[in-house]
Amino acid sequence: MRGVVTDEWIAIFKQLWSLSPASFNGRFYRYTDIRCEPFPVQKPHPPIWVGGHSRAALRRSARHGDGWHPVAASPLPPPDMRAHLDTLKQAD
User: Fold this and answer.
1) Model confidence, pTM
2) Three-state DSSP state, 33
3) Which residues contact 4 (CB under 8 A, 6 or more apart)?
4) Higher-confidence position of 70 and 73
5) Peptide bond into 47 cis (omega under 30)
6) What's the pLDDT tens digit per position in 4-53?
7) 43 contacts 62 by C-beta, under 8 angstroms
8) How far is CA 36 from CA 19, 52, 73, in A?
9) 21 preceded by cis ω (within 30°)?
10) Do you find a cis peptide bond into 44, omega within 30 degrees of 0?
11) What CA–CA distance (Å, rounded) separates 81 from 75?
């Protein structure tokens, strides 16, 4: 469930960083005609990095993010990193 909420938050941030006034009617959050100004300097919005190792996190990174952070307590072994990068390429 937290992944679905995260997807919605990413959509909300992208919208609020580029549209004013903005309205949103999602599964978890709703708003109508709100303003979030000034807009960020980065266009169309600040980079969104998604972390995690799960397939869902990799999918989220490929679909909604601008970058992926492996979020590992220690470096990933090269075969694991290769597998995750292959998953990212397929999820896009």
Assistant:
1) 0.78
2) strand
3) 27, 28
4) 70
5) no
6) 999 999 999 999 999 999 999 999 999 999 999 999 999 999 999 998 87
7) no
8) 8, 29, 35
9) yes
10) yes
11) 9
Sequential DSSP letters for 48-85: -EEE-SSHHHHHHHHHH-SEEE---SSPPPHHHHHHHH
- C-beta atoms surrounding 57 within 10 Å: 21
* Overall size of the chain counted in residues: 92
pLDDT for position 71? 66
- Token pair 């995750």 is at which residue? 84
H/E element, 4: helix 2-16
Closest by Cα among 59, 55, 53, 54 to 10: 59
Q: Which residue has the tokens 């909300």?
A: 12
d(CA 82, CA 58): 13
